[in-house]
Amino acid sequence: MIENGPLLERLLEGEFICAVTDEHSFHKLQNEQLVEDLNHFLRPLNRRVAKSEDGAVYFLAYCDLNQQARQQLSQQFNATVQSLLPMLEWMQLVQEAMGRDGALSAGDTIKLQDFESKVVDNQSLIQRLGQLSNDKLFKSTSDKADMQIKQVFKRIKELGYIYQPHKDRLFYIVTGKVEQLIELVRFIKDEENVPIDEDAPEQEAMF
Amino acid sequence: MSNIHEGKSSAQSNPLFQLGTERLELIGKHAEALMQGYLQGHVDESSFSQQALEKLINGRILWRPDEQQPLSLRPNVNELIAGLTQDERKRQINSDVGEHLDLIHTRVQSLQAARQKGDYAASEHHMQLLTERVHDMTGQFGDAIESLWHRLNTEFGFVSSLDDKILEIELAQRQLRRILDGFKIISFDDLIQLAGSDGGLRKLLVSQLQARISEHSGSLLEVQKRLVLLMARFRHQQERALLVNRMSAFLRQHPNFKVGDYPNRSQVPAVINQAHGIIAQAFVALDRPQDSYALAEIARAIPRDLVPESHSEKQTQGFATSVQDLVATEQKQLAKDVEDFFLYVIESSAAISGVDYLAENEMPWEPEMWLFQIVAEYEGLPQQNKQSFMLEKDSARKSPFNHLHIIQDVKLGMRFFGDFQAAS
After folding, report:
1. In what order do the strands lie in the sheet with A162-163?
2. Where are the domains of chain B?
3. Chain A, 26-45: which have a CB under 8 Å from a chain B CB?
4. Phi and psi at residue B123, to the nearest 5°
5. Nearest CA to A68 among B262, B270, B275, B279?
6. What does B21-90 look like in DSSP terms, one character per residue?
7. How far is it, in rounded angstroms, from Cα A8 to Cα B137?
8. What string of DSSP letters covers A49-66?
9. Residue A109 main-chain phi, psi, to 5 deg
10. Integer CA distances (angstroms), B200 to A25, B204, B376, in order
């Protein structure tokens, strides 16, 4: 158990462990026996190891949903819901700027310089970036695209959705936490019967 | 195609040889312009001389599909280039097995007829054609499978958008099914019957063919499996992109959209059950003597400032500062009064008694404290200034049993040229 100390500590600090942020620990957590041992240790702290549905990311969840835990979850969930639209818009922005079809997924790389040069070339992307960076999630006060981009990526890094392998290089990798966000989106869609499954593009055009 | 094969099989005297060589050379001669035509879909007529154009058209290399259409490469030539360059955009999969089998039947019949006649040369010729036909058929399967693998391994990189990739996979799956259907048409029972007791034919039509087909089937099954996986991946990506796009559009259109209060449901959904972080902290345990050495090491390793800070100010903080402040102001007042006393002494000509001065000015200090402060002030003067003053302690022995002297008064005066005024 001793050698898993650092891993436990990181989990307890609320970190998400995926193949991008910590490949070694991520592989360790795929061992069910280890997870069981960790859970045994975490039980008095009312925590257990949980993973996203597709297994892309590990984190801690509450065992007992007591009042305190629920309060904490409420707070966190509200924050996530608040940041949902800006996060989705950011994903779209990156996707379009980089000319990708698929949504961002764990392991995708983003070179800030590439992204910036693509955005700066396109008036509509600049405009969208401006709006996005003004959102209270990012709180950029600059009207310069490069500063806005820096601020947006800095915040998203803080939120744990991207990982910067080298401190002084503006090169990011999308983490498994993004998968968790997508799962949440899917869940909300199903749960609230959000009518976006069929013919949504036509609806969009109508609006 | 078959013309070329026949040309190859015959000796150089065959008229086909001459013709085929000429046309291949023609392709080589105009290779660049033809490749341009291949990529653009039509050739630029101005880049050829009139004569060359005619040659190319007569050589069945270029044609005009329609009166209004520009000149372009004939489908056969297109296919040849696509096959040579593994260009998956244009490469065609020809999985028509029926025609091959028909031709094989015909060839075998011709062969047997020639043998019955005892025409050795003719039967040799037919055997040659039959072998080629069989190899063509298996080679065609091989090409098709190779093309599928190639597309698979490049993840359909020749088209850029996800939608196109998915369409391409669907196309590849249809091609694959057609090849598998083609395999089913090949009836080995028929072929065994056809080959009869002829060892050579049996080997060609049955054992060799069977080996090739089963090899291809295995490969195709693998391709099929991989195609399904790749398709699932692409579909997954597509679905995510749609989800992200549509959800963000929806949220933009419905700014007041409220999601349910999931954290307070009786069944909290797993997707939101994320425990908040605990920052683990630990402190030095002084109750464990076995750690003292390690702790000392750590303590020693703490970097410290080489110049010690003036602690006095800092240290007073945190105590009962109000009392401390009061004492400090009193101390200052006392020092100031003593200073005034010294000034008084300087102005007056005679030596002054400290106790008298205190009584005269009705100051609140205790005599003992007052005298002590005067002595302290005197002793604290710089040497030079000290020489200007003369201090006389008026003390009495407290008791005959020890040497304790109590100072009852001090007299302070100015020293002028060595005399002590107080003494005078």
Report:
1. A109-111, A171-174, A162-163
2. 1-85, 88-254, 320-423
3. 45
4. -65, -35
5. B275
6. HHHHHHHHHTHHHHHHHHHHSS--GGGS-HHHHHHHHHTTSEE-SSSSSPPEE-HHHHHHHHHHHT-TTT
7. 62
8. EEE-TTSSEEEEEESS--
9. -110, 145
10. 63, 6, 133
Give how far B232 is from chain A: nearest CA, Å: 13
SS3 content of chain A, % helix, strand, coil (to 5): 55, 10, 30
Here the tokens at position B189 are 């029972």
Tens of pLDDT, residue by residue over B123-137, are: 888 888 889 888 888
Q: Could you tell me which CATH number the domain at A79-194 has?
A: 1.10.10
Q: Which CATH architecture has domain A2-67?
A: Orthogonal Bundle (1.10)
Q: Which of A69, A52, A28 is nearest to A105 (CA)?
A: A52
> Is there a contact between A114 and A143 (Cβ–Cβ < 8 Å)?
no
pLDDT in tens, B82-133: 778 777 666 666 667 788 888 888 888 888 888 888 888 888 888 888 898 8
Contact B250 A72 (CB under 8 A): no
- Give span(s): CATH 1.10.10, chain A: 2-67, 79-194
| Predicted TM-score of the model (pTM) | 0.58
C-alpha torsion sign, points B274, B278, B279, B280? negative
**Nearest C-alpha of chain B: how many angstroms from A62?**
5
Question: Given this model, what pLDDT does residue A27 score?
Answer: 92
Question: Who among A72, A81, A184 is closest to B271 (CB)?
Answer: A184
Q: How far is CA A58 from CA A28, A50, A183, in A?
A: 11, 6, 14
Please report, as a single letter, which amino acid is at residue B89: R
> Mapped to the 3 state alphabet, what secondary structure does B280-315 carry?
CCCCCCCCCHHHHHHHHHHHHHCCCCCCCCCHHHHH
Please state, in angstroms and rounded to a whole number, the distance separating the CA atoms of residues B383 and B369: 24
- Phi/psi at B389 (5° precision): -110, 160
Optimal mutation site among A88, A180, A189, A192, interface B, most CBs of chain B within 10 A:
A88
Chain A residue whose CA is closest to B247: A196
A192·B259 Cβ contact <8 A = yes
